[in-house]
Each structure stands twice: as structure tokens, then as C-alpha cells.
Design a protein that fits this description.
The chain is α+β, with helices and mostly antiparallel strands. Helices cover 17% and strands 48% of the residues. The chain contains one helix and 16 strands.
Length: 236
């Protein structure tokens, strides 16, 4: 794979990560709202609605299950929301600390902060692969994402402005590490080109300006102009 092809592949991967990140954030927000609504509507006055009993007496059928502690405080709720079942776990103060649910996109697990307001950790399973999300203090901002999409593992690190600043992946061409600027443009890439180590440096316009790589013949360094045209290299 050439330098241009490698760059194009990395840009495609970063674009996919940004789209995936927005989808995950939207799903997490919708799920949290749905769970909250389900709790207000069904959890505040829990009543087991029997759907019918099978021939086996050990089977219990209901729309909602409430688990209380010795003091009568609700500590867990197994309920049905619009898209599927949901399990909510509460601390002794009544704050939601964990939720496990199933919706149209797949199963998901969310762990919340001590106030039960902000998601801190999220685990989702989508059609194209699983994802682990680590959120910031506010809960809505994703600071790190580890996912496997179509068999390719990747780690994305985000800044305070929700921009991908560091991206690591391992695909069919090998491992690569890239750093991006505040505008999400790639500034440097450390990876493999034709199974050989290479370091690529870019300007603010994502044009390659310098490359250091090791070929079979030995190391090579190249410099490029503002249009990406090679103007100097060694050895000649």
C-alpha cells in the first residue's frame, strides 16, 4: 500500500469513527430517556400484570418485577420499555447506577455516576460489532471508545470538544497510530507501508509534507511541497 492509499484509508477510518460516535451518543441518550420514562410510568406504582400461567407452577409471567431491600427501598426493576426488556439497579439512595436493556440496535449496558444522572461507561453490541464507551464527568461527552467494526479493532480518544485526537487501529495492512488537530485533520501517522515502518507528517490542510520510512533497501526520508509533490528525498 502506497503513502496516498494509506492516508486515504486512515481518513476513511476516522470518518467512520466520527459517524459511529455520533450514533452511539444518540442511542445512549435515547435509551437513557426511555428508561427514565419507563421508570416514571411503571416503576413509581409497580403492579405485576399477569400474562398467563403455564402448566409448570414454577413459571411466573409479568410485565414488571420489583426487588426491594429490608427497608422497603426499591433496589432493582425488571421492566418492559418500548423496544424491549430493561433491568435497572439502584443504590441505597434510590439513584440509578446500572441499566441493562435491549433495543432495536442490540443489547446495551450502562453504568452511571453516584448521582444516577450521567453515564460513565457504556457497552453496546451493534450489527457491525461491539463497542465500549468511556464518558467524561458530564456523561454526554465520550472521551474514549474501543470498538470492533467489521472485524477491525480500533481505539479512539476524544478531546473536550468531541473531536477524535488519537486513533489506533489494526487492519489488513497492519497497526497504525494517528494524531489529529483541533479540526480533526490528520497531522501525523505512525504505521506500516508494505509491511515496513513509516512515519508520515501532514500540514493543516492534510497534505503530506514529510515521510520517514524503512524499505528493503534501507531507510528513506522524503519532503513534499504544499501540493503533496515530492521535492526532496534521501537517498536519491
Amino acid at each position: 500500500m502506497t503513502i496516498d492509499e494509506r492516508l486515504e484509508s486512515l481518513e476513511s477510518q476516522l470518518s467512520a469513527v466520527k459517524t459511529h460516535h455520533r450514533l452511539l451518543l444518540a442511542v445512549a441518550t435515547i435509551a437513557a430517556i426511555s428508561l427514565g420514562v419507563a421508570w416514571m410510568l411503571d416503576g413509581s406504582t409497580p403492579v405485576a400484570m399477569a400474562k398467563g400461567v403455564s402448566n409448570t407452577k414454577k413459571v411466573v409471567r409479568a410485565n414488571s418485577f420489583i426487588l426491594e431491600d429490608k427497608k422497603g427501598k426499591v433496589r432493582a426493576v425488571l421492566n418492559m420499555i418500548n423496544d424491549g426488556p430493561a433491568l435497572l439497579l439502584f443504590d441505597e439512595r434510590g439513584n440509578t447506577r446500572a441499566s441493562l436493556y435491549m433495543n432495536k440496535t442490540g443489547p446495551a449496558l450502562q453504568l452511571l455516576d453516584e448521582n444516577g444522572e450521567n453515564i460513565q461507561v457504556g457497552i453496546n453490541v451493534f450489527k457491525d460489532g461491539p463497542a465500549l464507551l468511556l464518558h467524561g464527568e458530564k456523561g454526554g461527552d465520550i472521551r474514549a471508545m474501543l470498538n470492533v467494526k467489521n472485524g477491525v479493532p480500533a481505539l479512539s480518544l476524544f478531546d473536550n470538544n468531541d473531536k477524535v485526537r488519537t486513533f489506533i487501529k489494526v487492519d489488513k495492512d497492519g497497526p497504525s497510530l494517528s494524531f489529529s488537530g483541533e479540526s480533526s485533520n490528520i497531522l501525523s501517522v505512525l504505521g506500516l507501508i508494505e509491511n515496513r515502518p513509516a512515519l508520515l507528517l501532514f500540514d493543516d490542510n492534510s497534505k503530506i509534507r514529510a515521510a520517514l520510512n524503512v524499505k528493503l533497501e534501507g531507510p528513506e526520508m522524503s519532503l513534499f511541497d504544499g501540493y503533496g509533490k515530492k521535492i526532496w528525498w534521501t537517498p536519491h
